[in-house]
Each structure stands twice: as C-alpha cells, then as structure tokens.
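debug: dumping io for the single-chain case to check the tokenizer round-trip. Nothing else runs in this session.
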Amino acid sequence: MFRDESACNTYNYGDSVYWDARYIHEAAAGSFDWYQRYHALRPFVRKYIPTSSRVLMVGCGNAVMSEDMVKDGYENIMNVDISCVAIEMMRRKYEHIPQLKYLQMDVRDMGFFLDDSFDSVIDKGTLDSLMCGTDAPISASQMLGEVSRILKPGGIYMLITYGDPTARMSHINRPAYNWKIDLYIIPRPGFQRPPGSTSSPKSYLTPVPTTDKGLLPADYILEDPDSHFIYICTKMGENTHLNNSPPFFH
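debug: decoded output
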C-alpha cells in the first residue's frame, strides 16, 4: 500500500516538528477533536471497553475525548503523542485529574510499555496521520505491531478513521496481529439525509457485513460519502487463529 494520497496534503503528519509547530500556532484556539466527539463514539466505547480498563489513547493531541471518558466513569487512561508541546500542554491542563496521564512518545516505538499491558487502545486519526507521512506502509506496520504487542489477549484496538476497508484492511488484517475485526460505519458530524430519501436509515450500531476479503459488498451504499469507519480489532489468544472471513456479526 502507498500513502493515502487522496486524503493527504503537503504536510508530513508523521513528523513531530510539524505537530509541535502546529500546537504552538494554534494554542489560543483550544482543544480540537478529530472526526468525532465522544458523545458520538460513546455507544461503541461503552460496548467494547469496560470503565475499569487500562486504556491507551494514541496520538491524543489536545483533544478532550479522554476527559470526556473520565467524566463517563473511565478510571485509567494513558495518553501519548509525538508532540512534546501537546503533551506538556495537556499535563498542565489535567494535572488535577489522576485518571489521566500523559507521555511524549512515538507510537512506532512504544518500548516503554510492557507486552500485554493494556486492555484497550483507542486511535482517532493517528494511523491516518502516519499514512500521510513518508514511508507510510513501514510506519503503519511499526505502529500496529506495537499496538498488538502491548494489548492483552482479548484486548480491543478501536480504530476510528476516514479509511474505508480498501485502504485499511490490508494494514490491520494481518496474521501477525491475530485480530478479529468488526466494522462499523457512522456519518460525519452534522450529516443530514437528503430530503425525500425513501431508504430506511441504517443502524450505525450494527456491524457491517463484509466480503471474505474484509471489504464492503459491491452493492453497499454509504449514506454519507464522507463517513467515518470504526474498526473493532479484538486480539485473540496465541492458540486462536482467525482468517477474518465471511461477514462479521455479533
């Protein structure tokens, strides 16, 4: 797979220099959450991640999702980002909230964390950023390998992305990770169905059936062409082998 040329601009989103400069420039603007706010993601988070879980938020930036999760009862969220500027800002902002911890770290090398040490990893745009950087396939493989390593068996990697299965499955659906993958699709914030639409609204809380290659069926129609995709990747035990074949259902 190549870089996500269709969604990238000339910035190198995998570079700490870019992010440090951006957070300094935009400091006065306050927090920013990529793609979706917590209230839209809450049904998925609460379904797959117990509040007692040890959670890792990769590429946390200056988003408020972790804060919102703590308000919703989550007890232990480690936040990492490649930008030392963002991490220092967030440490100061949340120094009074013991449930939130912040570390400057490159998600391609998270050797600070032990194997099997997290119950869940949440990624809202971080893999997408690496896919826009140089050496995108290598960076993606390094990050996903680290995510798989630090997840406990039975743990959840929740990937929220603009990347549809044709752009993401080849990266996440690899035997080395041994992940069982469920796919959900939700519209972008503010999306409204076209006036006069006669089709029944889709249930966003139902996993989307996929082909034996993990792709959307040829006749599947996105209600919102700019939808976001949520991949729920469950790390299976060492003795459990999957080929994420026919449709994923609960």
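debug: round-trip ok. Residues 56 and 78 are 5 Å apart (CA to CA).
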